[in-house]
Write a structure and sequence with these properties.
Blueprint: H1 12-42, H2 46-65, H3 67-82, H4 86-113, H5 115-120, H6 127-142, H7 145-159, H8 164-186, H9 196-218, H10 236-268, H11 272-308, H12 312-339, H13 341-346, H14 355-366, H15 369-384, H16 389-400, H17 402-409, H18 416-447
Helix pairs in contact: 1-8, 1-11, 2-6, 2-10, 2-11, 3-4, 3-7, 3-10, 3-11, 4-6, 4-7, 6-9, 7-9, 8-9, 10-11, 10-16, 10-17, 11-12, 11-14, 11-15, 12-14, 12-15, 14-18, 15-18, 16-18, 17-18
Length: 448
């Protein structure tokens, strides 16, 4: 395996950058998974995009579920490594992986059993769109366990200071997806045209291959993975600690997904084209929030190890560095989305009547990108300290306010754009409140 980065010593900016850049690169790769799907599916029309958008909401919810073992495992492993307790770090990794396997299998079974009811929630108008959404849901969510395990292993590696392995295996996964997407969606030679089902199959196959590559990469790793002993039950107190740290974030992510589903249902009142606009627009916008999420993971690992080692000054300087980097990225992405919205949207959907709706979405959402990035940095810092409740409370509060605010503004002259303004303004509030809360919390920690 690639030599791990020492998070406890050395120049802070350089150490954080070496840890963060592969994760941010991985985030671009993960964003690439979705964008590749959207580019090819967009060639099938806005109906196919709407189908994937509706089913994709439940993948968001799945990611919320896996947050418990992913965040809980990453924070506990990093803190134990920082304090020099390597054997306990391996035990926490075992507990996270066992929990992730159970939750992934359970979520997959529920998705297969209740796929009709899940898609019917959105009240889509077109019969073909509804059928495509059900098929996509059954394939991608039915085999979601591989996605769960990929994320948990990546989190554990980040906690160890090894982010290069994740970048490498995820890059290979994207290349495979790039090849499989057009082949399975449109057919080639003896392979029949599968449409939306082909896109789902390509995504799952890429996730399976990434999992296999992870296994190969970690097989001989001496500190954590060689000492996993997966068949041995994890200690109850360790499971409780993983759940205690990961559960608030999981509730936040799951509620965010549920709230997004309600918002998507409101959006569907303007037709399937509006659903497609939100799906494509959110994928374009992911150039910002995927980066924020990736950098948040790096900040989490950096602060968690230094928290375990009780290096307060290093934590303080690391967080300041993260704010500068993420603030610059947020400003840059805001400029891109607000200056070139039509250019980006036309990459995915060509229908003339849909383009103006997409342009409005990107310009309105683009205003909030800086604050979204600042929220990501503060979230990672809180998680590294083992305090996941503040970002969860902030996220849940302002996300819940989206529903009544969207219902009110959408009935004004703003119409559909009123919903986009609500989404943008709530991000601004979260990105303002959470960094201020972290500043106050860290001052208390310094005094202790």
């Amino acid at each position: 395996m690639k030599k791990k980065i020492d998070l406890l010593e050395g120049p802070i900016a350089g150490t954080l950058a070496r840890l963060a850049f592969p994760i941010m690169g991985t985030s671009f790769i993960q964003m690439g998974y979705n964008l590749v799907d959207m580019i090819w599916i967009g060639r099938l029309g806005s109906g196919a995009v709407a189908a994937v958008g509706a089913a994709g909401m439940f993948m968001w919810m799945a990611n919320g579920v896996t947050t418990i073992p992913r965040i809980g495992g990453q924070v506990t492993v990093a803190q134990k490594l920082g304090s020099g307790e390597k054997e306990e770090a391996a035990q926490y990794a075992r507990g996270a992986l066992r929990m992730g396997t159970f939750l992934g299998v359970l979520y997959g079974i529920l998705s297969l059993l209740f796929h009709r009811q899940m898609i019917d929630f959105f009240k889509l108008n077109n019969t073909e769109v509804i059928q495509d959404a059900r098929i996509y849901l059954m394939i991608v969510c039915g085999l979601v366990v591989f996605s769960f395990l990929d994320q948990i292993i990546g989190g554990i590696l980040a906690a160890m200071g090894n982010t290069v392995t994740t970048f490498r295996v995820t890059t290979i996964g994207l290349l495979i997806n790039l090849i499989l997407d057009p082949v399975l969606i449109f057919g080639m030679g003896p392979i029949p045209q599968m449409g939306v089902a082909g896109a789902a199959t390509a995504t799952v196959l890429a996730q399976v291959i990434v999992f296999v590559l992870y296994l190969k990469a970690i097989w001989q790793e001496p500190v954590i993975f060689r000492n996993l002993h997966l068949l041995k039950p994890a200690k109850k107190e360790q499971i409780r600690k993983i759940v205690k740290i990961g559960f608030p974030s999981a509730i936040q992510d799951s509620l965010f997904s549920a709230i997004s589903m309600v918002i998507a249902r409101l959006v569907a009142g303007w037709g399937d084209a509006a659903v497609a606009v939100q799906k494509v627009g959110s994928q374009i916008e992911s150039i910002s929030w995927m980066m924020a999420g990736g950098f948040s993971t790096a900040v989490n690992a950096f602060i968690a190890q230094n928290y375990g080692a009780r290096k307060k000054d290093r934590i303080k300087k690391g967080y300041r560095t993260a704010l500068v980097i993420m603030g610059a990225w947020g400003i840059f992405t805001s400029f891109l989305l607000m200056a070139f919205p039509e250019f980006f949207f036309r990459i995915f959907i060509k229908e003339p009547e849909v383009i103006p709706m997409g342009v409005d979405y990107l310009r309105i959402i683009g205003i909030s990108e800086l604050f979204m990035c600042l929220e990501g940095a503060a979230t990672g810092a809180f998680q590294g300290l083992g305090k996941t409740i503040p970002p969860s409370v902030t996220g849940i509060t302002f996300n819940l306010l989206r529903i009544p605010a969207a219902m009110l503004l959408s009935k004004t002259s703003l119409g559909l754009n009123g919903i986009w303004w609500v989404l943008s303004f709530s991000c601004i509030l979260k990105g303002t409140v959470l960094p201020l809360w972290y500043r106050a919390e860290f001052k208390k920690y310094e005094k202790r």
